[in-house]
Amino acid sequence: MLPTVALTALALLPAVHGAPSSSASLHGVYKRCGAISQYYGQHQADWDTYDTQGWLDSWWTNNTALMHNNSVGFAGAFGQWAMGNPDWSCQDDGSSTDCDLNLCDNRVLNSRGKDIRPAYYVLESVNRLHTYFGGVREAFDTAGLGAALSKDQWATTFYEAPDQRSVNILKEVLAALGTIIGIGASFAGVGLPLLGVSEATSAVAGAWAGAGAAAYGGGVTAANIMIGPHADDTFQKSADLGGILGEIVVDSIKSFTSANNQLVGGQEYNNEDIRSYLSHGAFLEFQGVDKNAVTDSMTAMLVGTSINQLYRAQKVFILGGGSCDDNEGIGSGPQDAKICRDGKAWYLYYWQEDDVLSITSHQWGWVISPPGVSQLGQNEFSDIPLNVSDIINSSLDAFNVAGYNYTTATAQSRAEDAITKGWAIPGAYGAAWEGIFTVPVCDVSAAISSSFELKQFILQPYGHDSRPCWCGPICSGDLQKTKAFIDAANMGGFDSPKHLCNSDPGY
Ligand SMILES: *[C@@H]1O[C@H](CO)[C@@H](O)[C@H](O)[C@H]1NC(C)=O
Ligand SMILES: *[C@@H]1O[C@H](CO)[C@@H](O)[C@H](O)[C@H]1NC(C)=O
Ligand SMILES: *[C@@H]1O[C@H](CO)[C@@H](O)[C@H](O)[C@H]1NC(C)=O
Ligand SMILES: *[C@@H]1O[C@H](CO)[C@@H](O)[C@H](O)[C@H]1NC(C)=O
Ligand SMILES: *[C@@H]1O[C@H](CO)[C@@H](O)[C@H](O)[C@H]1NC(C)=O
Questions:
Q1: Span of the secretion signal (predicted)?
Q2: Is 405's C-beta closer than 6 angstroms to any atom of ligand 5?
Q3: Closest Cα to atom 7, ligand 1: which residue?
């Protein structure tokens, strides 16, 4: 406890370090508010620096009776203890003032001595967690999804093969949905001032680990409950996927945000209580959900996942691994569609089969850009941040983690691991996040030093007369990998890439 003289002196100083979210402020100069003023301008790290988690745990233990007695549980009890306001409910019940903080000159709080700081941090954090849940509800806007994945839009744009494989495609999209909603719920909590600060990303991700994991788990659980009734939906190629996904997303988010009331009441939601969400000061200086960023990222991930399922059912693949300059004796890909990453060139391909009976070389088909790629960025897709660079980055990252075996289970555990351990903020990547796309990758760079027959045609530009020749184990110089690639790209038993080879390449 500071001597009274010191407290008085501090109280007389104008608090120039900033103020809590809802304190009275006038052009940056704050009126004196008592001892509380000295803790304004709080930062996320202060939570751990002053062991607020330990303090809150101790408060929680000491005040279980008070929480049980209060009709709104934890928030009411804490409001009573810290501010003399037992009606501080922070419920989502239509009231816009039930979570307000009127801390300036608050007699109860200002008399709490050494507990003023931690009590203030908890009050601010709970208030901002309440803001987070409100923001999440507004950020999961499904208008873009509805347009991009509408009846006659999605499948007909990105799918050409006659075989529809329809039921499996829908099931896979639904299986991925929980992970994406979890990523979105977690991403929404990263907050406005922290986005776009790339050098701070890992620190942010680390601080957000506990709360992010809780939000992620909550989102996944909410989505899985809502997916249940849709799991056996029948689906045709032209089904209204945007409608189905939109409905599940909206219902999932309603269910997730109702968690607010349970958490502020002191109950658990998805095995976590409010302390998990507040840990490491995740909400201590939270400035609100960046709704556009969350909406864009979520929409791109959901549309990307849906397109990926269609691509995985067609002859769509990625070749590359050579120098960005090409000219290494293995042919050159389509230069204007080249994605250069870490000094290596990668190309997204589709092997188009001939659609008319032909005895010319066109009977072997040709390579072009996959169906729908030219539509990205246009019309219904104009507001969706998703391009070839995202498709390649996401697929390469997935390939580097699990080869051709990157499943929805892999996606779920990788996203959870990234958020929980704080090595990435998946939502910040949008459609470029690992595993949103899992287009099969073949690294052809080993062919540069090989003696494969016709190796100068391994890579080809796009075009009606472009037919690559793969007369050896083109993927990493490894026959098993090449076979796995051929199968993953739906080219098992497809003779076109090897019809000019003098000897069977073995795949
Ligand atoms: C909880 O009670 C213990 C024992 O009385 C006390 O030392 C501690 O400061 C209390 N914690 C809080 C946060 O009030
Ligand atoms: C809880 O309520 C009961 C009955 O009104 C009262 O006797 C008790 O003192 C209260 N306990 C606390 C911690 O407020
Ligand atoms: C793809 O979009 C990202 C941002 O979403 C942008 O940084 C990148 O330049 C785009 N790449 C291409 C090839 O258009
Ligand atoms: C793809 O990865 C490269 C290299 O890591 C990066 O420069 C580029 O911005 C990424 N593109 C997207 C769309 O994320
Ligand atoms: C993928 O699965 C196949 C068998 O299905 C296995 O041979 C291969 O090693 C796996 N690859 C990776 C990278 O896990």
A1: 1-18
A2: yes
A3: 58
Q: Is 64 in the pocket of ligand 1 (CB under 6 A)?
A: no
- Between CA 407 and CA 396 the distance in angstroms is 14
**Secondary structure of 13-50 in HEC code, one letter for each residue:** CCECCCCCCCCCCECCEECCCCHHHHHCCCCCCHHHHC
DSSP 8-state symbol, 341: E
Q: Mean pLDDT highest for which of 80-84, 193-197, 269-273?
A: 80-84
For tokens 């990668």, what's the residue?
346
Q: What is the pLDDT of residues 216-254, one digit of tens each?
A: 999 999 998 898 887 777 666 557 888 889 999 999 998
Per DSSP bridges, beta strands 316-323 and 441-443 are parallel
What's the CA gap between 218 and 222, in Å, rounded? 6
Summarize the confidence of residues 151-180 as an average pLDDT. 80
The identity of residue 467, as a single letter, is R
State how far the Cα of 500 lies from the Cα of 507, in Å rounded to an integer: 14
**205, pLDDT greater than 80:** no
Cα 433 to middle of ligand 5, angstroms: 22
Cα distances from 207 to residues 43, 101, 134, 212, 423, in angstroms, run 12, 25, 22, 9, 11
pTM of the predicted structure, to 2 decimals: 0.88
